[in-house]
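Check this:
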Amino acid sequence: MSNNDLFLRNGSKIAIIGGGPAGSFFAYFASRYAAEMGIDVSMKVFDRKSFCQRGPRGCNMCAGVISENLFNKLEEEGINIAQYCVQREIECYCFQTQEDGVLLHHPVSGHTPRIVTVFRGNGPVQSPHEGNVSFDDFLLNHVKERGVEIVFEIVKELKLPANKGGPVKVIYGDGDARNEIDADLVVGAFGVNTGMMEKVCKMGFGYKPPKTVRTCQCEIMLNPEYIQKTFGNNVFVFALGKKDLKFASITPKADYVTVNLVGKTDLTRNNLIDFLNHPAVRRLMPEGWDIPKSFCMCISKIPVTYAKHPCTDRVVVLGDASISRSYKSGIESAFNMAKLSAYTAFKYGVSEKAFMNGYYKPAKRLLARDNLYGIIMLRITD
């Protein structure tokens, strides 16, 4: 079988590993392009995590800011974020130094930004809200309505075919169960905080994961009235002269604020405590406020480089485990890369050559400028 034969056709099976935004966005675009081409494909999204759970079981370790660019792109695709997902509508950013802060408004006078904050999962364990507010679960349900099957089981192994061009074997199941499907396309839409990167490395086609650093994030419950009075509809970004911090922010939600720290090297809980005790941060907290003894916190990884060789025949990796913007806008990156890779799969085929030329190389060019500007700005801030 030649590369010219590696195309999706009627009856093709697609296995998407990861039910976060990258996986859901790929499923959405795949269903759209399949309909445009008049072919019938079946898709399964594999993710053991249930995003409608509160606490770590549903959390996807993200500050949860939907940028205006992404908000508009979602609307253009008919994906209107459910109001129950929206925690707060952001109007501007506040740049906070050790002594003072300045509000950064949109440069166009009178423009109302379309930026919202969300919980990727169903909020911290102690969340008082009722029902499900998860953004990731909202996206999964959106593609489920388009005929995509959601499989809440772990993918244990991926096997490339013995004969070049044949289907990829996906082995999955909980416990001792070993279910198998032959997939005409496997999409790695997992993050850098899962064990799937090692499993893909073991496939032996040359995939090298991106380098990562450990960040620190926590959710702090505050009175909603206090959040509105003190933080308003503003994301606070800090420049406190701390050499170990590359980026620090506090993002307001309904009855929580999300603290997000990124360092030049791996961060720990001690970095978080040190940040929360800084006078500029404590001035934003209620009088007499003490750091809670227990709160939702994670030390998660984020990519700081691109993956190498994230594709082979019938396999493509996207999202954080492949290529994304450095330090920011992971959800928007997932949208852009899912669209680009899905378009490639349906228009140019699912061969390694098609993915390299139609997805990976253009993706690197697309993000190179943004990442360069970001690096320059971070160095100026330092």
Observations:
- The CA atoms of residues 194 and 321 lie 9 Å apart.
